[in-house]
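Write out the bound-state structure for TXE.
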Amino acid sequence: MTSTVQSLAATDNVPTGLFIGGDWVTGSSGGTLEHIFPGTGSPNATIEIAGEAEVDRAVESAWEAHREWISYTPEHRRDLLLNVADALRDDAERLGRLNTHDFGVPTMMSAAHAGLAEKFFRYYAGYVDKANGSSTPVADKFDVNLIEHEPYGVVGIIAPWNGPLVVVGLNVAPALAAGNAVILKPSEISPFTPLRFGELCVQAGLPVGLVNVLPSGPEGGEALVRHPGVKKIHFTGGGSTAQKIITAAAHNLTPVATELGGKSAALIFDDANLDVAAVTMSFQGPVGQSGQSCACSSRIFVQNTVYDAFMERFIGAVESAKIGDPFDPSTIVGPVVSQAATNRILGVIDRAVDEKAGELVTGGKRLGGDLASGYYLEPTVFSRVDNKSALAQIETFGPVVSVIPFADEAEAIALANDSVYGLNAFIQTQNVGRAHRVARKLEAGSVWVNRHSDLGPQSPYGGYKQSGAGRAGGIEGLHEFQQVKTIRIGMDF
Ligand code: TXE
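---
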């Protein structure tokens, strides 16, 4: 059966080299990789994979560019970062298509990633010419006491496959605004938009080598983490990988900021608007990006007095989402990212059924027909799930969610917090006192009340517990890429 799903258009000319010092590099020591488009399960390009030699070359180029970057006036650096924001805006449609080629995200969502990156660049450009140091008196002298925020020099940013452009905004923008040069290591699974971004930076006027883009897997990533010329690592990805990265970084005691996985809880109280809650949670849960988001609300707790009424609406919303060709603008649910992810997610479903973790009420299968060659899974919902089960405790990172009843506020909070993760939490209630009370008791870095998650540059985003300790957004996101220096000038002489 041939797939009717669109694949690579000649006009898409996806970038396949490494981007180092403003040059496209091929013949990499890491070899090449056949990139598979999840929409069809077929190759859409052969890409270069960075090895240690390319990391060395990128670090050298980055230090040279850093020295040039900090020789520019703050006003000049600010304007160049605003140029990058304009370039992301102007290239949004092409970046959207590349995003879909990268990991199969439906085009109805993919262009928004470029828009988010643009917002972050506009926001952090604004910090460049604003004083972000300070001075304080000292207790027993009249010395001048300055507290300065300085760049690290060259930082390594390691991105997951599910949102490379989001990471460009969240982390590359503040890193550059803080005065650093960047080596961006996207996942080998999603190289195209980061590479195009690197090209846009040079076209926007940034010094060549200020942004280097090196798609690679664990080997290239490890070489970057271990490199003595890389002074800070920002990692976004899974917890087990974070452990490997922190271990490797210990080699030079390189600081590591982490943005990790989640098993986010949503609490639907009996006074919630159930129509709004059902639609919001279907998109925040198994439908949006096929649940392949760190912000996926994969555990939905519903007060038992409205459980059936919520479930009726929720299942209706989930089942009404159109599954199909991610290039079709009417598609809501695209493919999951790979054959490996397909096997892993179906394994989670089979285990949950075998262990009777809950009742499978919709989904659970891979789609066939003319979608058979791609990796299309039905959004899947289990009802009345045991919160202690593997299904409710282990991050699935796919279109599978658990719905769990609770009796009252105290039980809801206890169930939600019974997790090693703490990235996001969602509350649906009309009671403002309850919203504040519960939000302060949830162990999560971001709490969203009566709305879906919505990353914005104005507020820090990041995890509690094993969801990581880094923050992206706000002044906290800038400080991730700065080191603090105190300069005290004696006035007694
Ligand atoms: O992660 P992986 P994936 C999390 C999400 C899920 C994971 C999925 O919750 O857990 O990311 O992304 C590189 N040394 N978030 O599968 O496998 C690898 O090449 C150095 C949370 O990509 O951990 C890739 O570039 N690098 C997030 C990156 O690490 C190594 C939002 C991540 O790979 C490496 C999005 C090694 N040894 C997803 N091994 C948030 N909290 O905001 C792999 N890599």
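---
The mean pLDDT is 96.
The pocket of TXE is lined by residues 158-163, 185, 187-188, 217-218, 221-222, 225, 236-238, 241, 244-245, 259-262, 294, 395, 397, 423, 468 (CB under 6 Å).
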